[in-house]
Amino acid sequence: MQSQSATKALPPLGAYLFQQKRIRFPDVVYGYIKLPSMLKNFIDTPEFQRLRNLCQLGTLRYKYPNAVHTRYEHCVGTSGNAGDWIRHLKEKSDEALHEFSMLAQSPNPNHELLECLRARIAHINEEDIMLVQIAGLCHDLGHGPFSHCFEHLVNGLGIEWHHEDISCALLKRINNRIKILSESQRKRVKCMIKGKVDKTDTGRPFLYDIVSNSKNGIDADKFDYLSRDCLMTQSEPAAFNYKSVIEASRIENGEICYAAKYAPCLHQLVRHRFNMYAMVYTCWTTRAVELMVQHAIYLAEDGLHLIECARNRDVDAFLSYTDGIIPEIKRRRNEDEFKHAAIILDRIDTRDLYKFVGVIIKPNNYEGDLEADVKRHLQEKGLGEVAMTNKRQFDYGMGKSNPMEKIPFYSHENKLSTLGNYNLDIDRVMPTVCRQEEIGIFSILNESTANIDMAMQEWRNGDARYESYYNAHN
């Protein structure tokens, strides 16, 4: 039962907009993160505090011992970055407005410069700043146990479950109690979380690209998770400087654009994302652990009811599920619903992981579902019960597209930007195909590894499309 204080309505957002008080969060990445004190009304809730018990990198902790940071600090960091960014954009917009006003009063104004300045005026207000920071704070409320591991499991079972949707549902749940946001404000935050422009907010699409950018992938979420994950896994330190990206940005005609001389910095960002996905986030060791955790959750479903919760979109029940389901399964190992799942978790603890057999790199001209074809072949060979597959793909943040071509750059302070107007030398280090997809094959039982590998080699030798199969010993 909720306490009276938890259900008490608070003053509306307008009452907080010009408060100067800030709260400071000690942080391993930034030293300190300063947020408006109003955000404590969202932070000090069961929905947000649950994030303390969700590891940001899921099963990566089993390979990188320091990678135990949580969604809590990531959301705080994203909110801080989003606030810094929109304040910078407001400052640049205010400068443009001042210059425009001065130039417009001169007897012979430069009309080209006047139009450039007019395009850079964005009319950002304190409400915009606060809503962007709320979106950054709440964008990952909807993650399940072991973060993307859970989402991959339920999506693989044919259940449509996206953490962004659940984040928005939980934001609504919080706001129903505290009533700080009006309905229109809440819907704007929802659009910011999803990276979709609110159609009622005409002329200012940039507000919906700061937390989650579906146009070119440059956003505050990425600034934080790449900085934080890089530090905690000790991978590619100082690979990019997100502060330079912020400093290079301004608004033009409602869109975020960047100084062309900072194109190498943005290239570092998208390249760093690719490398983190290829070498850290999707490494086959942690994918083996992820498969085992998913397998354990599936086997324990009659006792956990977690998958049922996702199928029914039961947000209230969902709040009780965190990474703590793993010790829960172990604690209840003597119950029939949990005993088989506990055995799999014991194998993780003793490093008896599912064996990585090999990988198929999907050819660029391959049509169809490669993972489904692999599973079908293994079933036909009688190996479906002892083999598992895992698809991984890594790109530069925009699927098969080159994100650099989707970023507006301006070559001169007093010139308007154009898409992809950057130093062409960067093209020499950007591939023509910007995404790679691979299917990893694993053996549940060590004694089945050789048979699975033999089946895959037979398949490779029988069809030229599968020449890109490599076993783990190659």
TrEMBL record:
Checking InterPro entries in the record gives: dGTPase-like, HD/PDEase_dom, HD_domain
Task: Please give the SMART domains that the UniProt record associates with this protein.
Answer: HDc
The terms under GO molecular function for this entry are: dGTPase activity
Its BP terms in the Gene Ontology are: dGTP catabolic process
What residues does the HD domain cover?
71-226
Q: What GO cellular-component annotations does this UniProt entry give?
A: nucleus
Name this protein carries in UniProt: HD domain containing protein
**Organism field:** Acanthamoeba castellanii (strain ATCC 30010 / Neff)
